[in-house]
Amino acid sequence: MYVDLCERFTCEMCGTCCRNSWQVTLDETSYRRNEALFSSTGRKAEFDQAFIRLNEAAGYGEYAYIAKQDGGGCWFLDECNRCRLHKEAGHSQLDAVCQTYPRYPMSTSRGIELTLSFSCPAVLKLAGQEASLAIKRAGQPPIAFPENNYAVEVYPQQQPAWEPMHYYFELETHFIDILQCRSLQLDERLDFLTKTIKAINDLPQNETLARELTALFNYNYDWLEKLAADRLPLAAGPGEFLLENFLVSFIFRKPFYIYGLEKTLLLLERMWQQMSNTKDIAAAIMHFELQYGHDRQALWR
Q: What's the rounded Cα separation, in Å, for the pair 38 and 289?
């Protein structure tokens, strides 16, 4: 499954992702692969400058990081916004981060799922579309990414049947349907989503949970259908479409599964406060995405 934006994405070579403040890390396999390349071409001194070993404890798969130029750009970014390493040795020579971004692959019990990071300007341009995002099913994703390099692993059936997360995919689909109901203003949709999540938390966690969730979803859909029949779709501009599509893609990235219902709801509330009070929604989205992808602790402070 994948968000339909993935079908139309192409890198515009703007160099933004190569000039961000994040630290691009690589695992030992990638480190050794580049060490062999630079040694074979007599550039061991440059390798030692470009690839810096991490001395402190790091996350899984983080062995070293790529140095930056004085201006803040990646060591390998040239004056034409091209990657010197890619030009020399090809896409497979890059570390997993650079091979994957802005793709956001997830391993789930439904198969591999894919969306895109909205910290990429090219993705933001695509997401400003009026049409609602679509979640598509396919045997293969429309764009390639390194195997076994997933941002999230989601297997809801491992949760007990009396826990809401056991029914995560049903929850996710319902939440996205609420966010895409254009008979409501976006703030009304988020309010309805909040009420729905609080109702889920109030359900008894026992053998009746599946039945109670189904009843809640049916009640919500009946209400939304009646609303759609009674009220015309509300007028919206490019900023509203962009924000809706960002929120849908964000939910598809499984934050409710990672952090739980209440904590993710708090995150959405903080996000809405920031983005609803700015004139530059695209910049606010990019700022949030950079934090979510590279400094998540800042989101909770």
A: 33
DSSP state of 9: -
In DSSP terms, 104 is beta-bridged to 115
Structure tokens at 198: 């609080």
Q: Is the dihedral of CA 137, 142, 148, 149 positive or negative?
A: negative
C-alpha distances (whole Å) from 210 to each of 165, 176, 178, 203, 280 are 11, 19, 20, 10, 42
Instruction: Compute, in degrees rounded to 10, the torsion defined by CA atoms 172, 175, 244, 189.
Output: -170
Residue range 121-166, pLDDT digits in tens: 999 998 988 888 899 988 777 777 777 778 889 999 999 999 999 9
- Residue 107, C-beta contacts closer than 8 angstroms, at least 6 positions apart: 150, 152, 153, 154
Paired sense of beta strands 103-108 and 152-154, if any = parallel
**CA-closest candidate to residue 75, choices 83, 243, 206:** 83
User: What are the distances in angstroms from CA 110 to CA 1, 138, 150?
Assistant: 8, 11, 14
Residue 171 near residue 256, CB atoms below 8 Å: yes
**Edge-to-edge order in the sheet of strand 51-53:** 25-26, 64-66, 51-53
Of 80, 96, 89, 87, nearest to 30 by C-alpha is: 96
Residue 125 tokens read as 């341009």
Q: How confident is the model at residue 278 (pLDDT cuts 50, 70, 90)?
A: confident
